[in-house]
Write a structure and sequence with these properties.
alpha+beta, 410 residues, 57% helix, 6-stranded mixed β-barrel
Length: 410
Amino acid sequence: MNVLASMRTALRALRVNLLRSSLTMLGIIIGVAAVITMIAVGAGAQARIAEQIKSLGSNLIIVLPGSVTSGGVRMGFGSQSTLTEEDAYAIQREILEVQASGPAVRGTGQVVAGNANWSTVFYGTTPEYLEARRWAIASGKAFDAADLAGATKVALIGQTVANALFGDTDPVEQPIRIRKVPFTVIGVLERKGQSLMGQDQDDVILMPISTARKRVLGQSQAKLRTIGSISVKIRDDADITDAENEIRSLLRQRHRLQSHQDDDFFVRNLSEVLQTQEQSSQVLTLLLAAVASVSLLVGGIGIMNIMLVSVTERTREIGLRMAVGARGRDILLQFLVEAVTLAIIGGLLGIALGVSGSYAIGYFAEWRIALKAEAIVLAVSFAGAIGVFFGFYPARKASRLLPIEALRYE
């Protein structure tokens, strides 16, 4: 008996007990659907983290003011402004691995445009900040060195601010007031979305750092050169860890810190943080897929159980076929094909259910999903392997029946 004949015989046997066959496939259907859905959800989470990595900037290092010790008490982060604009310029000038280094000062305030107003955060910074953060201009232009030198009252606004103040109107060249100081919008930043902490990165205004000090933050800030952070972009061909160590060494030297003194600044390598989160997401995806795979094993056990019942019910049929010339391998092949057919059909139905379930989760739960062809192929292949593995024992048992004993079975 060839394989084609075995398949026809197997399909006829499955049609005879259609309800039982359907219930047997249910475990495989649920298992395959669960594996596909869990991998899609996990891959969606990984894709979301990848977007956040891109939105923060490539090879980004953030330098923040550190803590100080006063009267034996160690203060917290940012308890003293220990960074200056000169530190940022020195980092870019003296460290070869650095491509761009942008200082920033931060403030908050009410922004007014016509009859609309919005409370937001603003940063005084330099063009290097945009390069370090890989922040492109959606419309208009960025401020330049001449704007820095002249403390020009120009601003770049994020997408959220643009929508709140201007709606569908083009904001470029429109006047706004930041803390009652008149500015002109010269550009709109590209959308970045939420940060890892859930903050809206588009709810922001950027202006020249000199303008922020002299025009917005007040006279006390105008006389100071301290800053709130430095965003540093490392060259693509450079080692970010080496660059981080060089930045730390340079700042310690500039701040005249002795070997026994702690750093008065913090260096944060955001790429490492995000990569750690991405790895955690991958582990979670594998864990979810492994848990979902348990239902595939349960489905396989169901196939074995039904096939054993089928062998018992059809013992006389097996004996008759062997009596008229069927060999043991023909019987083995027939029952094995039945088991694999159950698994494959269940796998295909599971694909349909898994894809539908993934899109349903994405739609109703507003969760990012990413369907992968590899996951679908893996789930169906695993289903076929389950059919072979759990169907082999019943098939082997059937093929080893003695014709005379099988014919006597009642």
